[in-house]
DNA sequence: ATGCCAATTCTCAATTGA
């Protein structure tokens, strides 16, 4: 089972690239972030025609997450969770989760996460980010209890280590790289989760985001902020992980590229 | 230190992102 996470930065703008990616890469599960569209406007028919079941949580203009599941895999009935537990007042569309099952594969629980950016750090946005990460840690812990493999995939908006940025000094006081942000990320890992890409590829220079500005792509001024975190049972099945970097070089790209892990059937 | 770019919105300027 191949599971991909991709912040598309507007599902409407990126639909041609997404459909081409589904056709070429044929991932089994796709976790999308930054749909920037309400559920009524989600291009459901086009994606279903490509062979995928869709569950989405959208809102106007900002945020928005979705899960795509390629047939014959399916989303277990009544298994979809919309919104991260822990704060009923949080109305931002940043979390969707479901149990994925198939005839020949062991089930896997998969979440698509759009973690808050947190900038500027002296605004309420930064404490919101840290509170969201603590909620995610607690939920990640709860999800391990039934021992079904868990993959928490998404745009974490966290640069875990200096090796995950081409120029770490440039991010020193940014919400993506502040010590408290990195500590909150490590606290999730400490619950027993593994950074899937890092577990497969120890090299420096693995990036998943290049800013549209200042020629970041051309100069390879990237950062690694899109992650797939695997519970112990999921990590036992980890076969490979990779970044689909070439998509950043297309016309009208997202500023993020897909990241994919492959799990054995069980 | 700021803008650089891209997308969205009750658009022609402001807001958000990272």
UniProtKB/TrEMBL annotation:
<comment type="similarity">
    <text>Belongs to the DNA repair enzymes AP/ExoA family.</text>
</comment>
<feature type="site" description="Important for catalytic activity">
    <location>
        <position position="226"/>
    </location>
</feature>
<feature type="active site" description="Proton donor/acceptor">
    <location>
        <position position="155"/>
    </location>
</feature>
<feature type="binding site">
    <location>
        <position position="157"/>
    </location>
    <ligand>
        <name>Mg(2+)</name>
    </ligand>
</feature>
<feature type="domain" description="Endonuclease/exonuclease/phosphatase">
    <location>
        <begin position="5"/>
        <end position="256"/>
    </location>
</feature>
<feature type="binding site">
    <location>
        <position position="7"/>
    </location>
    <ligand>
        <name>Mg(2+)</name>
    </ligand>
</feature>
<dbReference type="InterPro" id="IPR020847">
    <property type="entry name" value="AP_endonuclease_F1_BS"/>
</dbReference>
<dbReference type="InterPro" id="IPR020848">
    <property type="entry name" value="AP_endonuclease_F1_CS"/>
</dbReference>
<dbReference type="GO" id="GO:0006281">
    <property type="term" value="P:DNA repair"/>
</dbReference>
<feature type="site" description="Interaction with DNA substrate">
    <location>
        <position position="256"/>
    </location>
</feature>
<dbReference type="GO" id="GO:0046872">
    <property type="term" value="F:metal ion binding"/>
</dbReference>
<dbReference type="InterPro" id="IPR005135">
    <property type="entry name" value="Endo/exonuclease/phosphatase"/>
</dbReference>
<dbReference type="GO" id="GO:0008311">
    <property type="term" value="F:double-stranded DNA 3'-5' DNA exonuclease activity"/>
</dbReference>
<keyword id="KW-0460">Magnesium</keyword>
<keyword id="KW-0464">Manganese</keyword>
<dbReference type="InterPro" id="IPR036691">
    <property type="entry name" value="Endo/exonu/phosph_ase_sf"/>
</dbReference>
<dbReference type="InterPro" id="IPR037493">
    <property type="entry name" value="ExoIII-like"/>
</dbReference>
<keyword id="KW-0378">Hydrolase</keyword>
<dbReference type="Pfam" id="PF03372">
    <property type="entry name" value="Exo_endo_phos"/>
</dbReference>
<dbReference type="GO" id="GO:0004519">
    <property type="term" value="F:endonuclease activity"/>
</dbReference>
<dbReference type="GO" id="GO:0003677">
    <property type="term" value="F:DNA binding"/>
</dbReference>
<keyword id="KW-0479">Metal-binding</keyword>
<feature type="binding site">
    <location>
        <position position="155"/>
    </location>
    <ligand>
        <name>Mg(2+)</name>
    </ligand>
</feature>
<feature type="binding site">
    <location>
        <position position="255"/>
    </location>
    <ligand>
        <name>Mg(2+)</name>
    </ligand>
</feature>
<dbReference type="InterPro" id="IPR004808">
    <property type="entry name" value="AP_endonuc_1"/>
</dbReference>
<feature type="active site">
    <location>
        <position position="114"/>
    </location>
</feature>
<feature type="active site" description="Proton acceptor">
    <location>
        <position position="256"/>
    </location>
</feature>
<feature type="binding site">
    <location>
        <position position="256"/>
    </location>
    <ligand>
        <name>Mg(2+)</name>
    </ligand>
</feature>
<feature type="binding site">
    <location>
        <position position="34"/>
    </location>
    <ligand>
        <name>Mg(2+)</name>
    </ligand>
</feature>
<protein>
    <submittedName>
        <fullName>Exodeoxyribonuclease III</fullName>
    </submittedName>
</protein>
<feature type="site" description="Transition state stabilizer">
    <location>
        <position position="157"/>
    </location>
</feature>
